[in-house]
């Protein structure tokens, strides 16, 4: 494999890693937004009276729900989203490390390519 072909292949791998990292960061932002929404709902539940009516939106219909069930569902969602955020942060860290390794590899290949060109 020529140096130029290897540089092109490694460059494509670097771009793929960058793309995956970008998508993963976007996913992290969406999860963070969902977590904030659920935490706001959780705070609202704390302000409710014990006899308050709670409704859940299912499609275009509001369905009455027991307050304890609704609170439990929100707490479970917060736990799930928090766990997903930790998992995605691990992916981001892993992809960042891979990206840095590929960046160094691309740089080294570019330098070697320049040296071959000048000779």
From TrEMBL:
<dbReference type="Pfam" id="PF01920">
    <property type="entry name" value="Prefoldin_2"/>
</dbReference>
<dbReference type="GO" id="GO:0051082">
    <property type="term" value="F:unfolded protein binding"/>
</dbReference>
<keyword id="KW-0143">Chaperone</keyword>
<keyword id="KW-0175">Coiled coil</keyword>
<dbReference type="GO" id="GO:0016272">
    <property type="term" value="C:prefoldin complex"/>
</dbReference>
<protein>
    <submittedName>
        <fullName>Prefoldin subunit 6</fullName>
    </submittedName>
</protein>
<dbReference type="GO" id="GO:0005737">
    <property type="term" value="C:cytoplasm"/>
</dbReference>
<dbReference type="GO" id="GO:0006457">
    <property type="term" value="P:protein folding"/>
</dbReference>
<feature type="coiled-coil region">
    <location>
        <begin position="21"/>
        <end position="51"/>
    </location>
</feature>
<dbReference type="GO" id="GO:0051087">
    <property type="term" value="F:protein-folding chaperone binding"/>
</dbReference>
<dbReference type="InterPro" id="IPR009053">
    <property type="entry name" value="Prefoldin"/>
</dbReference>
<comment type="similarity">
    <text>Belongs to the prefoldin subunit beta family.</text>
</comment>
<dbReference type="InterPro" id="IPR002777">
    <property type="entry name" value="PFD_beta-like"/>
</dbReference>
<dbReference type="GO" id="GO:0051131">
    <property type="term" value="P:chaperone-mediated protein complex assembly"/>
</dbReference>
